[in-house]
Amino acid sequence: MRDTGASARRAARHVTLFLDVDGVLNSYPVTGLRFLRERRRKVRAWHYELHFRPRVVRFLDRLTRRRLVDIVWLSTWSQRCRTEIEPKLGFRSSFEVIPMPDDTYNRFANDPHEWWKARAVEEWFAAHEEGRAIWIDDDLTAPETRAHFEQKYGSRLLMIAPEFSQGLSEDHFSLIRNFTYRRAVPAPARRTLLTTEPTGELAAVQVPAPGLTSTDSLAGDNAAVTNDFPAGIGTTYHGKA
């Protein structure tokens, strides 16, 4: 018998992950001892040499196999993400691509109304009113674009902007995992005090639990689902924690 409760929980935490290539997967050039320490590999894709970390690729593959995310390529590599990046970097799955519609590349990265990637993400949110997304792109350091998406989508969107020279790393993994899991926590307990009314009769008064003010809502004794997200949700996360 199908566990509909588990299916509902899985659907609630399922997100779409918009993924860039350069500055996220590829951090060319990485040289010397650092290349060895980070267990990088180098490949030729199209006309370029890429320095990537297989562990990052495996992490992203696991997310899709566990049905926690749907990855969508959002990169100037466009369809070459499927013909070059996926096979050369060793992805086990193939993902949808949103191709670059013109030759502007990242010229308008600081203009959320002109940048083609920003428009693509806006269109996705317009089509998914309850949807949640992760957007990983080193150009999300652009202040105007960052502020626009923070204000408009808040906790529905996790933006991660790795440093180009570092790329996506283990420091970002916990942010991504936590965003895909909403944890249920007990609602604050209510306390009942007995007070004496002017008439001399006793009356029950509901008192907020510690940590709440009298204006906070007390939603009862059942578990309440909260957006228990780490710092960085709805904001850009730069480099290492």
TrEMBL record:
It holds the Pfam family HAD_SAK_2. This is Uncharacterized protein. It comes from Brevibacterium luteolum.
